[in-house]
Amino acid sequence: MNQRTKSIWLLLLAGLLWSIGGVFIKTNDANPFVISSVRGLVAAIVFFAVLKGRPKMTWSRPQILGALAYSGVLTCFVLATKLTSAANAILLEYTSPIFAAILAWLILRERLHGYDILAIAGVGVGMWLLMSGSLSGGHAAGNVIGLGTGVCYAVFVICLRLQKDVSPYETVFLGNIFTFLIGLPFFFIAPPALASLPPVVFLGVFQIALPYLLLTYASKNAKAIDITLFTILEPLLNPVWVFLYTGENPGVRTIIGGAVLLAVVVMKAVFALRQTPKIPQENS
């Protein structure tokens, strides 16, 4: 098995592990902030161990803002999953490449290509179908928070790019600490039942920390398009697990909107790859 094939299998495993979040969150009675907090704490412990207890903190503006944005991703995703359909929560997170393109244009002065403009329009159509398809269930707040997940993830990506050669682990480690602190007051406001905590600990290890470590390792030998294509297993399977376990039906509009959104994200990645100059690399 060559290195790229191995990386693809690792990416598929990462996507599979990410996809279990929805069903664990939907079926847990704990307050969403408590779920997010415990997940963050456990993931932070794992990353602290990976960094051998010596994270190299720069405390730069991009590192702190990136950590806050990452914390926003974790917190908003749990809230959105509780407040709207699992399909909407995860699919709206996948609007992040479009927001990242807009932010890169505004902050990094990167050019917006024609396919970026078309992708933004396509995502707009997908978002409209997703959100209009679940308004009847009173899920408007969850949809808005789900969209916030995508925005936060885009800010996180831009902050990582601003740090260039700095290890991303420290930003993620700090982001998980922030997530824990944000949810900490809710342990007193809405104390969780002890039985609700072990599944969240499981999520912290296997749905947050491990997939991110797999992604980071796989990215050394995978192409950019591999990462886009094979981690897309997450939004495809997340609603399926929730439907099989809870019977939650996302609806026809949500399915169509999700298909449009994911197709746009994949096509944008393909066009971007074709526009990137081919530079010989040792691992490509």
What does this structure look like?
- With 284 residues, the protein is mainly alpha-helical.
- It has one domain (3-275).
- Helices cover 76% and strands 0% of the residues.
- It has 14 helices and no strands.
- α1 (3-19) packs parallel to α13, α5 packs parallel to α14 and α6 (96-107) packs across α8 (140-163).
Short key terms for the protein model shown above:
single chain, 284 residues, mainly alpha, disordered C terminus
Count of folded domains = 1
Q: In terms of per-residue confidence, which ranges show pLDDT below 50 for 5 or more consecutive residues?
A: 277-284
Overall morphology? globular
* Strands, count: 0
Q: What order do the helices and strands follow?
A: HHHHHHHHHHHHHH
N- to C-terminal separation? 15 Å
What is the makeup of the main sheet? none
Give the amount of beta strand, in percent: under 5%
On the 0 to 100 scale, the average pLDDT is 87
- Radius of gyration, rounded? 18 Å
Class per helix and strand makeup: mainly alpha
Helix count, per DSSP?
14
Draw up the topology in text.
Layout: H1 3-19, H2 21-26, H3 32-50, H4 61-83, H5 86-93, H6 96-107, H7 114-132, H8 140-163, H9 168-183, H10 186-189, H11 197-218, H12 224-230, H13 233-246, H14 252-275
Quick rundown:
The protein is an all-alpha fold and 284 residues long. The protein has 14 helices and no strands.
